[in-house]
Amino acid sequence: MEERNYPLYLYAAERMLPRMAEQDPKYIEVENEITTTRIGYEGETRSDQMIRRACLPRHSRVLHDLTIRVFGEDPVQIDTLVITKHFAFIIEVKNISGTLELERHPALLKRTAKDGKVSYFQSPFVQLNMAIDTVAYWLLAQNIEIPVKGAVFLASKYAEPHFEPGMPIHFIREIPDLFRNELKNHPPAIDEAAVEWIASALRYQEEPYDHFPLVQHFNHTQDNLHTEPLCTECLGRLETHTKRMGTCMKCELRQWIPYTETLVDYFLIYCKKASLTECSNFINLGRSKTAELLKSPLFLRHGKTNNTVFELNRPNIRISREGKLIVPGDEKVK
């Protein structure tokens, strides 16, 4: 089973917000995106725990945060795809509390909170059906015949679903029993090599949606963002008096200046590609030391001499479960 990565979009948004003034017209939008994405991620990690308890057959594959495109159509994002010799199963997770009802024309999910506040969301069943159809079409194009199933799973124990009987919706605690029943009802349709090939091919052909840089995604002006390094503990802005150490203006922790994290922020938030001079100016560090930092496997280099530009090596970016960048080696500038 793949390890679910901490969402890079969430990590970047969490680091963009402290760089914004609270009076910024986009501040609430970014804050809401952080809240929504974090709640979704927490629900997905709970579903992962239940999948592990399901004791899936050996050589099954579980793919997280998958993007699939078929026949030139818009890409479809899938929370979790379980591939077994018996079937492929799509798990659509919703971490929403309150009374849940379906609205039709248009199809929306209506949530009524305990305080009576009503909110509307995209229908998870529309999303689920699109995902099932997309995976089925993709498999058909590969001449692979295997049932494609799926369901919506509620991650919040405070959810009160009021849907028509027979709809494919469950609480995440039902995942182990559901898979046991599905395995009993579906004999093997493909072999282990086919399971592995499907998982590898889906990842190889993937075209993930690109949110970056966030200033473009949120239609924001980078001139209105603070550029100081952020505290490694509380994400407060650092006041720096030397090239080595800084003091957090929020928690007052004195610490090494996190140059690598700041460079990663530069590419996630401000720009997709940059020259050595632009990187050096952003982190307020000399060109030679900036060049040393850019040799990290977290960055890619294109071109030579005066035409050299750098960008993030996205596949090498790893975020811990606590939402911190995993930096290879020792990044302290001496």
The gist of it:
By secondary structure, the protein is α+β, with helices and mostly antiparallel strands.
Provide an overview of this structure.
- There is one protein chain.
- The chain is of the alpha+beta class and 334 residues long.
- The chain has two domains: 197 residues, no CATH class; 96 residues, Arc Repressor Mutant, subunit A.
- Helix content is 33%, strand content 21%.
- It contains nine helices and 14 strands.
- A five-stranded mixed beta sheet has the order 1-2-3-7-9.
- A hairpin with a 4-residue loop joins β4 and β5.
- α1 runs antiparallel to α2 and α8 crosses α9.
- It comes from Bhargavaea beijingensis.
C-alpha Rg, in Å? 23 Å
How many individual domains? 2
Strand content: 15-25%
* Alpha plus pi helix count: 9
Q: What is the string of SSEs from the N terminus onward? A: HHEEEEEEHEEEHHHEEEHHHEE
Residue stretches low in confidence (pLDDT < 50, at least 5 long) are none
Distance between the termini: 41 Å
Average of the residue pLDDT scores: 94
Derived structural class: alpha+beta
Pfam family, one: NERD
Protein name: Nuclease-related domain-containing protein
InterPro entries: NERD (IPR011528)
